[in-house]
Design brief:
The protein has 240 residues and is of the alpha/beta class. 35% of the residues lie in helices and 10% in strands. Strand 5, helix 9 and strand 6 form a beta-alpha-beta unit. Helix 1 crosses helix 4 and helix 3 packs across helix 4. The relative contact order is 0.21.
Length: 240
């Protein structure tokens, strides 16, 4: 088995022409991935199956429908349940727990810093609007203040790893942002693929269980948002 991510990885120099930043949400800004893992294991466990880390890594960043279909097919549950049924059972559990989602280390500091120094930032999440509102129950003042706009998964047709959500998000800035000067923050391989396919630079903050081979496409890999150095990308440095 390939080794997990052991330390941060940086290129010699980031793109010094960064003008806009685009953020994923689940697993990057909010600690919802544990909630997803527990809920999905509860559902497949009823059929004697295990929701493994390898399967989780494949579904991270995907829209709910395609991800649920992949889970059912991978675990050989066809004939016992459909992707729609899996999703329905999973959502019943998650809708009770999403409001407890906490901010990931370093997230608030980075968001407030970029907002304060005038770097336009937005949210680009695969979550639909309903789940986004549940997950941000305790964080609405922060999210409403710092983000120029928010793009949820139900606003676009093709989810990650397609580049659509990031391209759409870039166009919503006023004026629209050039993908070549956009920096994407992601935690999932599918999200990194989407950002690179959109022609953007990508900083990845993967789960500690992620295999190193699944982080190679990112321009920079960090163990935490606390480790992000804005000046590496030509952005204003932290004041503290």
């Amino acid at each position: 088995m390939a080794s997990s991510v052991a330390r941060s990885r940086k290129h010699e120099a980031g793109n010094s022409n960064i003008t806009h930043c685009l953020f994923d949400m689940d697993g990057l800004l909010l600690n919802t991935e544990d909630l997803y893992t527990e809920a999905q294991q509860e559902v497949v466990g009823r059929y004697g199956k295990k929701f493994t880390w390898d399967l989780k890594a494949k579904t991270m960043g995907m829209k709910a429908g395609p991800a649920s279909k992949l889970v059912v097919e991978t675990l050989g549950l066809e004939g016992q349940m459909t992707g729609e049924q899996f999703l329905s059972e999973r959502e019943l559990i998650l809708h009770k727990t999403f409001s407890s989602a906490s901010l990931m280390p370093g997230a608030e500091r980075l968001l407030r810093h970029l907002h304060k120094v005038g770097i336009p930032i937005c949210l680009a999440t695969s979550s639909d609007a309903f789940n986004f509102n549940l997950k941000t129950t305790n964080h609405k003042p922060l999210f409403n203040k710092v983000f120029h706009h928010k793009v949820t998964g139900d606003m676009i047709e093709h989810g990650k790893p397609a580049p659509d959500i990031f391209l759409h998000a870039a166009k919503q800035f006023d004026p629209a942002a050039d993908p070549k000067t956009c920096l994407v923050f992601e935690d999932a391989p599918n999200g990194v693929k989407a950002g690179k396919a959109a022609g953007m630079s990508v900083v990845m903050v993967p789960d500690s269980n992620m295999e190193a081979k699944d982080t190679q496409l990112a321009d920079e890999v960090l163990t935490s948002l606390q480790d992000f150095d804005p000046s590496h990308w030509g952005l204003p440095a932290f004041a503290d």
